Amino acid sequence: MRKETWRPTKGGNVKRIRGLEGIRGLLALAVAYQHTFGIMIGWQSGRSLITNAPFAVDVFFALSAYVLIKSYDEKFSRVNIREATNFYWSRFLRLYPLHFVMLSVVVGIFYGMVHGIPPYFSNNVKRDLISNYLMTQSLVTSESFSINLPSWSISLEFYLGSLVVLLAVFCRPLFYAVFVFFLFIAERHGFRVAGNNDPVFYGVSAGMLRLLLSMGIMVLVMDVVKRLPVRESVAEALCTFGVFTIAVSTICLPPPFHPVPIYLMSVLFAAVAIAFMDKATFVDRVMGNPIFFMLGKLSYSIYLVHFPVSMFLVYLLHIDLSYDAGNWIVHFSILMTLLVSCLTYEFVEKPFILMGRKVRLFGKDRPTG
C-alpha cells in the first residue's frame, strides 16, 4: 500500500500526522451530527450531544493552514505568479469536484422531491445557484445562501484561505500585519461565532473574520513552536490539553458562550494541539487509531454529504418537526452519510486528488511515495 504523505518540503516528504487526521474526522462527524439533529429533530430541541459545530469549522481552518504552510513554507524568497497559480489549481482540484457533485445532488433533491428550492434555503434562486456553483456565496456579506448548508466554509477555504496561505508563505511580515489588523477589528467590532454572513467591517463577514483569525493564530503558534525546544513529555501535556479544549469547545460550549476573547483562546489551544501533535507520540497514537484515521480520510466527504443525505430522508419519509421522528432517524442518516462518503471518496475525491498530485507545485519538486 502506498504510504500516505503530505506535499514535499525543502528537505523532502512531510509525513502525514495520523492524529490530525483523527481530529479532522471526529470534527466532521460532529458537524454532521449537529446539523442532522437540527434538520430532523429541530435546532432548539436540546437533544443533540454536539452544541458548537461552528467551532469545529474554525479548527478545520487552522488545520488547513498547518498542513499547507508546513508543506510549502520556506520554499521561496519571492512571489512567483506561476507557482501561486499552480497552487490555486491544485486547491481547485481538491475542493471543487465534490462540492459540485453534492451541490448538484442537493439541487436535484429539491427540484425532484419538492419542485424547487424552498424559500427558507434561498430567497433568490437564480443568484444563489450561480454563486454556489462559483463557490462565491460566502466571499462578501450578502443575502446569498449556501444551498448545501456546510459549503459556505468551502467557499472561504478556496478563495480567501488559499490567499492567506500564499501570503504567509511568500511574505510573512505582511501576513502578520494583516493578522494584527483583523485582530483589532475583532476586538473593536466583535462578531457572532455562528453568524457566517453577518457583516462585521465593511465587506468582511463573520465567517471571513473567523477564517483569518483561525489561520493567523495557527501560523503564529507554528512560528513560536519551531523556535522552542520542547521535551516530549511537555509536548504530550500541551497536546492533550489542546485536544481537550477542542472537545469541550465543540461539545459543551454553544456559540452564545463563546465571546471573542474565549473564542480566541479556544482556537489558540486548538492550534497548540495541532502544532505539537507530531511530537506527542501517545496522543498521536490515540487520535490516529485506524477508526479515527479512516474518518479523517472521509472527513471532506462527510462534511459535504451529510446535508443532502438528511434532506433526502426528510422528504422521502415526510419528516415534519411538528412530531418527534425519534433519534433513530438521525443515527440512520449518519450511517447513510458514512456509507455514501466511502463512495464519494473513492469515485469523486480520490481521482482528483491523484490528478492534483501531478500538478507541478512550488518549484521543481514533486510529491513522491
From TrEMBL:
The keyword Flavoprotein does not apply. InterPro entries: Acyl_transf_3_dom, Acyltransferase_3. The keyword Iron-sulfur does not apply. This is Acyltransferase. One of its GO terms (molecular function) is acyltransferase activity. It comes from the Bacteria. Residues 18-345 form the Acyltransferase domain. The chain crosses the membrane at residues 25-43, 49-69, 95-117, 129-147, 159-185, 200-222, 234-254, 260-277, 298-317, 329-348. Keywords: Acyltransferase, Membrane, Transferase, Transmembrane, Transmembrane helix.
